[in-house]
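Deliverable D5.2: sample structural annotation.
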Amino acid sequence: MSSERLDSMIDLIYAADLNIDAVIVVRNGIIVLEEYPDPNYDVSTLHMIQSCTKQFTSTLMGIAIENGFIESVDARVVDFFSDWDIENLDDRKRNITIRHLLEWTDGLDWHELDYPYDDPRNTLGQMWVSDNAVKYCLDRPMVRDPGEQWYVNSGTMIIAGGIITRVTGLTVPEFAEEHLFGSIGIDSYHWSMIGGGSAGGWYHSDGGLYLTPRDMARYGFLMLNNGTWDQEQIVSQQWVGDATNLQVQTTWGQPYSGFGYQWYIMPSLGAYAALGHYQQSIFVVPEHDLVVVFTGNIADGDPYWDAGFLEYNIIRAVTEYRPPESIATTDIGITNSTTTSSGYDTSELIALQNTVFVLVVAGVLALLTFAASGRILTRRNSR
């Protein structure tokens, strides 16, 4: 990769004081960049990942289906709450399926982005102060047929979390620990409850997960490798494919013009993404074997930089990189490669000198640097 592209990104973050807390770039399973511009954060600090939580909930739904707790994504939502008195129940609501929840084509009346979050008309805010958050979401009236139109509705992942809890008998974090987190090495996290537990005791399955950026990257790496971790299938390859490929068009246009099962599809970049408020993001770029994580605290109304950095700095650090010609050390009669065993240009790691001694010393320093920065895996996942 081109270190110049990556360095210019980091320089801009500091120079413009962009309120980005962490940046991690993983290529070929190795952390090639890890930076914490905000001194309040480091490698071990948990960060609220906001709506990136939704993609975790989506994956847990896939695992619940694979384990037989739920028949399929075409199961009807109201059937999981048959003992509840659901308001505004009509044929359209009866036909909402889990697929519609995952694709945001549910058809429920929802005004999350139409008003500021502190506006009493905001339905997400109303959910937070309700007696039962899941029921509040289910009770919303219908405004269109399921499957008709994509529309942002965080309440769908609250409903999804409620379904997971009802069919498994476990809370969302308990199910995650048993079937996801433990399998990929996530052992430090926090998952908050809606309203601190006052909204029916439901977990905040649309935005309440706290992780370290490295563990966000672990999850992205799981998806990059089609649901496998150390040769173990954690979530099925079929589910990962369905979740991270186009199911419906968004109304946002490029770069987030498509939507899968809660994953934003970025066809112009060959990527898919988990996105959260205040610029939390996990980008996966399969073609270039990349996982990129940003955490931040970008204020509402200020521009988000993550997608631009992904395109112009990180992807181009791969596509524009050209290894220099091998340096012939004719004085001692051998030719040394200009790339390290990890595939990265040694000019990114050391100041190349035309003597074997300096190359050996610098190579050792480079290996120590990589060891200090850490690997995502103890060994590379099979794909």
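Annotation notes: Confidence is low (pLDDT under 50) at residues 326-383. Residues 1-321 form a domain with the Beta-lactamase fold (CATH 3.40.710.10).
The annotation will be released with the project's public dataset once the embargo ends.
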